[in-house]
Specification:
271 residues; alpha/beta; Rossmann fold; 2 domains; 6-stranded mixed beta sheet; 10 helices; 12 strands; 32% helix; binds adenosine-5'-triphosphate; binds magnesium ion
Length: 271
C-alpha cells in the first residue's frame, strides 16, 4: 500500500499541490487522471522521491520514503518520469541494464542479464536492442524506458504517462503487460494517463486530480460519469455504455454555442 498524508508542494509561495492525503491499495493498477497542470506528475514524483514535498509524508509498503536509503528505496519502487532525456549515447540494451544497477551495482550477473532479456522481450524490443536511443522512433524509445523500469523488478512501479508516443497497438499491449505484471507478479502499479478510456478499461482504481487537489477517487465505475469527468477536465464529456463498458466520448461539440461552421460538413473534394 502507498499512503500519502498532507502532501503538498509549493514553489515561490505558490502551492501547486495539496495538501492531499490518500492511499493506493497494494496490488493492481491505479490510474491518475486530470488536466495539464493538475499536479499529477508532482504527486507521482513525490511518491517516488524524485521531488521533495514541502509538507507531508509518503509511505510505500513499510518504508517511509523520506527516511529510506536511496539504495533500499530503489529495490522497492521504480519510476518512469514524464520527460526522459538522455544525452549520453547508449543502446537500448544498455539503457534497460541500468534498471538492474540497484541490484548488482553495475556488474550484471547471469540473473540480471536474464531480467534485461525478459524486459526487452516483454516490450518487443529484442530486434532493436543494439540500436542507440537516437536511432529509434519516439514510441520505441518510450518502450525502452518502460523496459528499464520493469527490469528494476520492484514491487511498486510508478509510471508517468507510459503511453506517451505509443500507437494504439502498443498502447493496448503496454496496458496488457502492466495488467499481467499486476495480476501475475503482484506488482502495485500507479500510472498517469490522459486517455480516460484506457484508464477505465485497465485500472482497478482511478484518482482524478484538478488544480492540485484530488477531486475524486474510486473504481472506474465510480469515476466514469459525465458530470464528474466534465468537471475534472472542464470540458463536456459524454459517457456511453459500449458492450457493457462505460466509455467516455469527447468528440467535437455540435452545440450552437460551440459551432464554428454552420454549413454542411465539407469533404476534401469540395474545398
Ligand atoms: N519547478 C517548478 N516551478 C514552478 N512551478 C512548477 C514547477 N514544476 C511544476 N510546476 C507547476 O506545478 C503545477 C503542476 O504540475 P505537474 O507537472 O504536476 O502537472 P501535471 O498534472 O503532471 O500536468 P501534465 O498533464 O501537463 O503533465 C503546474 O501548474 C506547473 O506549472
Ligand atoms: Mg505531468
Amino acid at each position: 500500500m502507498i499512503t500519502f498524508s498532507d502532501v503538498s508542494k509549493t514553489y515561490q509561495g505558490e502551492t501547486v499541490l495539496g495538501p492531499v492525503s490518500g492511499t493506493i491499495a497494494a496490488g493492481g493498477i491505479t490510474s491518475v487522471i486530470g488536466p495539464n497542470g493538475a499536479g499529477k506528475s508532482t504527486l507521482l514524483s513525490i511518491m517516488g522521491r524524485l521531488l521533495e514535498p514541502t509538507t507531508g509524508t509518503v509511505t510505500i509498503g513499510d518504508a517511509v520514503v523520506r527516511d529510506t536509503a536511496t539504495k533500499d528505496l530503489a529495490r522497492i519502487v521504480s519510476v518512469l518520469r514524464q520527460d526522459n532525456t538522455l544525452t549520453a549515447r547508449v543502446t537500448i540494451r544498455e539503457l534497460v541494464s541500468f534498471g538492474r544497477f540497484p541490484h548488482c551495482g553495475g556488474r550484471l550477473t547471469t540473473r540480471d542479464h536474464a531480467q534485461v532479456d525478459r524486459a526487452l522481450d516483454f516490450l518487443h524490443l529484442d530486434a532493436l536492442a543494439g540500436r542507440y536511443l537516437d536511432q529509434v522512433s519516439g514510441g520505441q524509445r518510450q518502450r525502452a524506458f518502460v523496459a528499464m523500469v520493469l527490469a528494476q523488478d520492484t514491487p511498486y512501479v510508478l509510471l508517468d504517462e507510459p503511453l506517451n508516443n505509443l500507437d494504439l497497438k502498443h498502447s493496448v499491449a503496454m496496458m496488457g503487460h502492466l495488467r499481467r505484471a499486476a495480476d501475475e507478479l503482484g506488482r502495485t502499479i500507479v500510472l498517469v494517463v490522459h486517455d480516460i478510456n484506457f484508464a477505465a478499461a485497465w485500472s482497478d482504481d482511478i484518482v482524478a486530480m484538478r488544480d492540485g487537489r484530488i477531486v475524486v477517487g474510486g473504481s472506474a465505475g465510480d469515476i466514469m460519469h459525465e458530470d464528474i469527468l466534465s468537471d475534472v477536465f472542464d470540458t463536456r464529456v459524454r459517457v456511453h455504455a459500449i458492450d457493457g463498458t462505460r466509455t467516455a466520448v469527447y468528440a467535437r461539440p455540435r452545440d450552437e454555442a460551440y459551432a464554428v461552421d454552420s454549413g454542411r460538413p465539407r469533404r476534401v473534394a469540395d474545398m
